Amino acid sequence: MSETLKLTPQELQTAVAIAASSDQPLDQIVKRLELLTWRDGLAEFRMQSSGGLLPWMEHLLALSDRVNQRLEQEGIPLGPNRTAYAAWLAKRPTDSK
Known about the structure:
Helix content: 55-70%
Shape: globular
Number of domains: 1
Order of helices and strands: HHHHH
Number of strands: 0
Number of helices: 5
C-alpha cells in the first residue's frame, strides 16, 4: 500500500470497504487518503463539492479525519508534512512479527 502513511488494520479495512463501494481501486483510495491526510488533496473535493460529494468521498473524508486524530494522539500534529512523518516513523521501534 502506502510507503509513507501507515494505516492501522481497522483503517485499512475501512479503506477496502470504501474501494468496494466505489469505482476506485484500493491503491487509489489509499493514495487519496494520504493526500487528504497531508492536506494536499482538498482541491479535488472542493471542485466536486458544487455537485455534492459521492458517498464514497464522504466516507473517505471521515476516514481521513480519524487518521488525523490518531496521528495527533501519537504525537504527530494535524496536517503534518511527509518529512516530519518519516522522521517520526524512523524514531519508533519496529514491530516484531
